[in-house]
TrEMBL record:
It holds the Pfam family PP2. It comes from the Eukaryota. This is F-box domain-containing protein. InterPro entries: F-box-like_dom_sf, PP2-like.
Amino acid sequence: MHHRHQRPPEICNLARLNRAFRGAASSDSVWEAKLPRNYQDLLDLFPPERHRNLSKKDIFALLSRPLPFDDGHKEVWLDRVTGRVCMSISARAMAITGIDDRRYWNWIPTEESRLDLLVFKAVSRERRRIH
């Protein structure tokens, strides 16, 4: 069985079930194939001592947990199944172009936000670009 074609949870499950797969499942070459091309850029968001001397499997595990950055307004992590980069951006990190007039929008507090910040609610019926 070729680990490069399996998803990370499948690799870990096989390693738990079969000793023969355990060594191969921890191989850097297997886990490097699961990391995105820009994983080093993501690691640069951490202090160097957090990721120095880690195996690729441990780097994948580290990056699979949400990492806050940009003063806590954004989080980035890897999806544990697909290995794709995910990002959560708080409403406070976005800019509203074309509307500086607060009569057309307001901030509404919420407990439902993953980042536990205020969210944006558009009151205007016009479409505005948010970036």
